[in-house]
Specification:
The protein is α+β, with helices and mostly antiparallel strands. It has a single domain, classed as RRM (RNA recognition motif) domain (Alpha-Beta Plaits). It is built from three helices and six strands, in the order E-H-E-E-H-E-E-E-H. The strands form two sheets. The chain has a four-stranded antiparallel β-sheet. Strand 4 and strand 5 form a beta hairpin. The longest helix is centred in the N-terminal third of the chain and has 9 residues. It is globular. This is RRM domain-containing protein.
Length: 98
């Protein structure tokens, strides 16, 4: 795992949690470059849990954010782990297409 990752994966996110709530929570721990919540806020799909990816500007925020693991947010205990970033040149490789 890349110890210099800037990305965390947050699982066990309550279905009623919004992107803005996640941005507020993790924004206290560092500057957020990007935040993605799946399924998106406007998704018509019924879900029992959501997943959030947060990319911080500073890699130090990843270590700090892991301290929120088991913190109850809305109605679920969050699980926060570092997430390895994929090199964009690898992700765009023709070998991965179709």
């Amino acid at each position: 795992m890349n110890s210099n990752t800037h990305v965390i994966q947050v699982t066990n996110v309550s279905p009623s949690t919004t992107s803005e709530q996640m941005r507020t929570l993790f924004g206290f721990l560092g500057n957020i470059e990007e935040l993605k919540l799946f399924p998106p806020d406007d998704s018509p799909l019924p879900v029992t849990s959501r997943v959030c990816f947060v990319k911080f500007l500073e890699s130090e925020s990843v270590g700090v954010s892991q301290h929120l693991t088991n913190t109850v947010f809305v109605d679920r205990a969050l699980i926060v782990v570092p997430f390895a970033e994929v090199d964009k040149s690898f992700a765009e490789s023709p070998f991965l297409a179709g």
